[in-house]
Amino acid sequence: MRQYDLPVQIVPQLELSLRQLAQKETEQSFTLIEELWKDDYFEARDLACYILGQQAESQTERVVSLIENWLSESQDRAVVASIFEKACVGLLEFAPHQFSELTKNLLASKELRQQGYGLMALSIYLPKAHHNDLPGIYGMVRPFIAHSDLQLQSRLSELVRELAKQSPGEVAYLLKEVLADTEGPEIEQRLRSYLDFFEPRYAQSIQDAIKNHAKR
Fold this sequence. Notes:
Layout: H1 10-24, H2 26-38, H3 42-53, H4 60-71, H5 77-87, H6 89-94, H7 96-108, H8 112-125, H9 134-146, H10 153-166, H11 168-181, H12 185-192, H13 200-214
Helix pairs in contact: 1-2, 1-3, 2-3, 3-5, 5-8, 7-8, 8-10, 9-11, 10-11, 11-13, 12-13
């Protein structure tokens, strides 16, 4: 995607002034968001995401609608990251259940592109997640570990890496559960690619489970 290559210090200054606009001039800020989004340079869309993420709680439905519209189209990877990192800031603060629903809908889509967006959303959200959120995330990612298209493997691998950072013991157990419930050598190959995400004792337990699975 094309970039303006603005000096690094310029963007934070722009964001500071645009935050005030978002908080004081709602309609004007939404108009600006729409105009910025029409620009196919990364910095413009990144700023659009930032302004959207600074909207008041009363604008949550409009924010969700705009995010869904953006994600319904093919977007550059960096833009998708900005949507989840910046445009969803207010959504996570005011209506985390709607962020969860958004993610679930993406993962449930029949389009691989949207499924990939859903996996990316979880990867970006994980560092901010509470431990109590993890079981729900495990439930969302489990079907993808068991069976997923090759086009999703990179996104899935990133997510498993982030999960392993959060709770390596639980994730190792999850992987072994999925392995036990899934037939075929593909799952063995997939889990082998995750071994480096774990410290030796967890990696070894997964490796042992893979060896036993191969004997079935």
